[in-house]
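Handout, page 2. Input:
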Amino acid sequence: NKTKVDSKKAVSYMVKEFEMKKSADAYARATTSKTGTLDMGKLHTYKYNDDLFKKVTTLPGATNHGLVLFLDWSGSMAHNLVGTMNQLYNIIWFCNRTQIPFEVYGFSNVFNRRMGEKSGYAQKFKSGDLVLNLSLLNFFSSKMKIQEQNDMMHYLYMLASRWGYRDWRNDGYPYSEPLSLALGSTPLNDTIIVAMDLLPMFKKSAGVQKLHSVFLTDGASNNINN
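Output:
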């Protein structure tokens, strides 16, 4: 709740900047055309003015935007996850305010290993296949109800805080995370390859014209060598 209150000013500023830019772009692409109807107020200027017809300015429709975010769920992010969550939540609240459809995926190479066959992990490959070691965890979506978003924010904030720096002696030792949500290494390149299929699918299903993808990561991807 404190994070949400502290973020209100920043989110409002993001919304304002977005709306202003949308308006500026719309006016820049405005077209003016003659209506074919005489402008009676200009008739007295007929001797020196060839343009006696009324004009109409047409503004193009607003462009639909969509956003897909990929969150690095790896061990090197542990001590930066609280700050990263703050940034992520700001973007989610911004999308809610501007009604931009969005999806948030955590990328992990631990989930499959812990869930085994339950995860549906493909075990059989044919010659020429690129073998990716990756799970995309769909943490947030614009399809979720606000209460569902709030609950998920709470859960992930607890996990992020569990890995952050703390005074263990005075603040106590936190519970361990669920094994399937443990932090692993960084399948960033795997995620980028999967995104090549995932992003066009989202763009089509959400019916958006402009799609933006954001990677919240400290980089240094695993190799893909199979």
